[in-house]
Amino acid sequence: MTSNASAPVRVGLIGAGPWARAMHAPMLAAGPQTHLTAVWARRSEAAAALAGAHGAVAVADVEELFERCEAVAFAVPPAVQAPLAVRAARAGKALLLDKPLGADLAGARAVAQAVAESGVVSQMVLTKRYHPATRAFLARARQTKVTGARSCYLHGAFLDGEMATGWRLKEGALLDLGPHLLDLLDAAVGPIVSVRATGDPRRWVELSCRHENGAVSQASLSGAVRLPRPRTRIELLGESEEVVWDSAGAGHQESWPLLREEFAAAVRSGVPGPLTAAHGLRLQELIAMATP
């Protein structure tokens, strides 16, 4: 790893699909804290196109990608991410990980264990957590005694379009959207100690969460409902005035600067933030608890 603490972190990207094109590649290439150096994907033509669009190099395999970077970002299905993240951690690379951490609890545990044993920095891309509005909401939540909470994450991306494929259609909203909402409820209300689920994750699933402080929260998840725009909302209720967070008008791009800055700072200092692979494992444990 470079000794120049102010130098951009050299990041290799694994994946060249819709999320890599829309988020990872432009965010990492924009800098100044990071520099996108290389892209690898199972479809070499997609990797070449994405790398060329952002001044990076398309590489033939992950070992070559590891040689060209000091951190690895993942934009691939969870069943692909988990084993490659283990390899990257063992190669001494910092990890920028997508959610869910693995396709199942065993995969998630393998990643978290590899990170712990290798001592590398890890950070989860829970995009909403890096938005200024979310940070303001969580700051207010910390000053609020919550009795109960209602929340939802709803959209129609599983009905058609680029996201209506593969693991998302098979596993549904619990594994795809659940990490986001459980993470926010855990942070806003208090640590979740139990989760119960009813419904079909491929259509609509309801979660009932019990928190360490005695509060109860509800979460509605669906990727198969037609809406004008995605709807993510949390309402915190108690003896004082309600505290509400709503994603309306909050674009992903507004989260990129803080996400990039915090990841680069963690890599350069060697001190990870709170959203590590261990946190990703905790979210996966909650999802496993809720799996119908």
From TrEMBL:
A Pfam family assignment: GFO_IDH_MocA_C3
Gene Ontology MF terms: nucleotide binding; oxidoreductase activity
Start and end residues of each GFO/IDH/MocA-like oxidoreductase domain: 152-240
InterPro entries per UniProt: Gfo/Idh/MocA-like_OxRdtase_N, Gfo/Idh/MocA_oxidrdct_glycsds, GFO_IDH_MocA-like_dom, NAD(P)-bd_dom_sf
Annotated SUPFAM superfamilies: Glyceraldehyde-3-phosphate dehydrogenase-like, C-terminal domain (SSF55347), NAD(P)-binding Rossmann-fold domains (SSF51735)
Keyword rRNA-binding annotated: no
Oxidoreductase recorded as keyword: yes
Keywords, in A-Z order: Oxidoreductase
Tree of life domain: Bacteria
Residues in Gfo/Idh/MocA-like oxidoreductase N-terminal domain copies: 9-123
Protein name: Predicted dehydrogenase
Organism per entry: Actinacidiphila guanduensis
Organism phylogeny: Bacteria, Bacillati, Actinomycetota, Actinomycetes, Kitasatosporales
